[in-house]
């Protein structure tokens, strides 16, 4: 069991490193091509994109992976039982977004330039959901190599599309360029899904019984997906509200719209991605952790469960601490190498030490899911989001400008991580 977990983690680490490098190259290309203002527009619309992705998937990829890993169900029947629900959710979201795009861009985010980008999300979401559902099959069976291949393929295709296409679109305006960045996900998600299908068993027989929805499977899936979705939804709603509240508050303080977009782009487009660069490591650990912990906990091996969680936390910090120290010592070097700018270096020195705690949140969240305690993730997400939104709202009232965003992010990470550590320790102590 332990060897399989380590093997899965290593595969995901190698793949995670490759995709993280590709992801950073994509971000660098985007930043250099569209500049700080264009990046600001992209980062304004991104929270809306992430919110709708979480709603459209409804936590089913995680519930599928967990139920498949238990090896007690008909995998094909499980998949076809929840497929109609997923299709209906995605159709509903796409229609609603097409109708609400003018309202979101003009009246909520106060920027008409992102209308096309918001509209583009409606066409991307179904492809993102399909790709995530396909990945869940391989996660459940602890087959990480197909996932790694699909991720690398997705990033390579998207990088090529952006590199070849953005220069032709940008003369039309930044609004068209940002919309193009969103739409490019369609082709990359299709390529990713096709790669996953190549790794499916060659002799798959689907009977009529497999296609008939199983109410028991649906209930079991919803029992996992609803708390998971609620938790992620709270965080996504917080991210969605962040630029809305921040923009309105800073406008009231006398900031210009262009200044707000630029500073928001620097913090969320330059600073945070750089600080969280090693997050591929914790993501790999959390993905490999779920099926392994689920099986250990199911057979009542609490001792190994605690050791596996502790190992995940230690490994995450072992990568995070050295990288954080390097960033604090000389952030300008990293910014110059990656983005050809030193803008935002003072933000990095403030944020990097606190964001170190962010590295262990993914393994902790996966641990709660594996132990059947997804509600803890829900409450921790609610707690962190409430703090983040409250600071964003109250900061400008005390004449705190863009720094209110830094404060809100820092307190969110600090309090949420402490809450999760206390909860996991208390629960396992009672079980042991």
Give a description of the structure:
The structure is a single chain. 85% of the residues lie in helices and 0% in strands. The chain has helices at 2-57, 60-69, 75-108, 115-140, 144-169, 174-198, 208-211, 215-252, 257-275, 279-298, 302-329, 331-339, 345-355, 361-370, 374-394, 403-431. The protein is an all-alpha fold. The chain has one domain.
Shape: globular
**Helix coverage percent:** over 70%
How many angstroms separate the termini?
Answer: 19 Å
Low-confidence stretches: none
Run of helices and strands? HHHHHHHHHHHHHHHH
Largest sheet: none
Strand content: under 5%
- The helix-and-strand class reads mainly alpha
What is the count of distinct domains? Answer: 1
Summed up:
By secondary structure, the chain is an all-alpha fold. It has helices spanning 2-57, 60-69, 75-108, 115-140, 144-169, 174-198, 208-211, 215-252, 257-275, 279-298, 302-329, 331-339, 345-355, 361-370, 374-394, 403-431. It has 16 helices and no strands.
């Amino acid at each position: 069991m332990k060897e399989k977990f380590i093997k899965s983690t290593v595969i995901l680490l190698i793949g995670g490193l490759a995709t993280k490098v590709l992801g950073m190259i994509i971000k660098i290309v985007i930043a250099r091509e569209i500049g700080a203002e264009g990046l600001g527009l992209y980062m304004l619309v991104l929270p809306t994109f992430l919110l709708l992705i979480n709603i459209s998937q409804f936590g089913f990829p995680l519930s599928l992976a967990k139920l498949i890993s238990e090896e007690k169900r008909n995998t094909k029947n499980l998949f076809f039982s929840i497929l109609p629900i997923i299709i209906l959710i995605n159709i509903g979201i796409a229609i609603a977004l097409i109708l609400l795009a003018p309202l979101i861009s003009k009246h909520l985010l106060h920027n008409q330039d992102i209308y096309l980008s918001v509209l583009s999300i409606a066409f991307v979401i179904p492809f993102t959901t399909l790709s995530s559902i396909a990945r869940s099959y391989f996660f459940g069976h602890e087959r990480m190599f197909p996932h790694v291949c699909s991720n690398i393929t997705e990033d390579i295709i998207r990088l090529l599309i952006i590199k070849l296409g953005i220069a032709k679109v940008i003369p039309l305006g930044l609004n068209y360029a940002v919309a193009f960045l969103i739409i490019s996900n369609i082709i990359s998600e299709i390529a990713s899904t096709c790669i996953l299908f190549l790794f499916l068993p060659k002799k798959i027989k689907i009977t009529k019984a497999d296609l008939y929805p199983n109410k028991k499977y649906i209930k079991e899936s919803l029992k996992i997906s609803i708390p998971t979705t609620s938790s992620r939804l709270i965080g996504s709603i917080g991210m969605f509200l962040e630029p809305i509240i921040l923009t309105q508050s800073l406008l009231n303080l006398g900031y210009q719209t262009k200044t707000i977009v630029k500073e928001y782009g620097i913090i969320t487009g330059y600073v945070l991605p750089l600080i969280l660069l090693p997050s591929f490591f914790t993501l790999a650990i959390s993905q490999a952790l779920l099926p392994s912990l689920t099986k250990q906990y199911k057979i009542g091996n609490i001792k190994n469960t605690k050791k596996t969680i502790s190992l995940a936390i230690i490994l995450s910090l072992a990568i995070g601490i050295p990288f954080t120290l390097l960033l604090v010592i000389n952030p300008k070097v990293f910014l110059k190498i990656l983005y050809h700018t030193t803008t935002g270096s003072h933000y990095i020195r403030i944020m990097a030490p606190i964001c170190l705690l962010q590295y262990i949140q993914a393994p902790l969240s996966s641990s709660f899911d594996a132990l059947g305690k997804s509600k803890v993730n829900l409450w921790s997400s609610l707690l962190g989001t409430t703090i983040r939104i409250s600071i964003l709202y109250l900061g400008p009232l005390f004449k705190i400008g863009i720094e209110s965003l830094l404060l809100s992010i820092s307190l969110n990470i600090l309090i949420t991580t402490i809450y999760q550590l206390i909860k996991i320790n208390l629960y396992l102590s009672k079980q042991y």
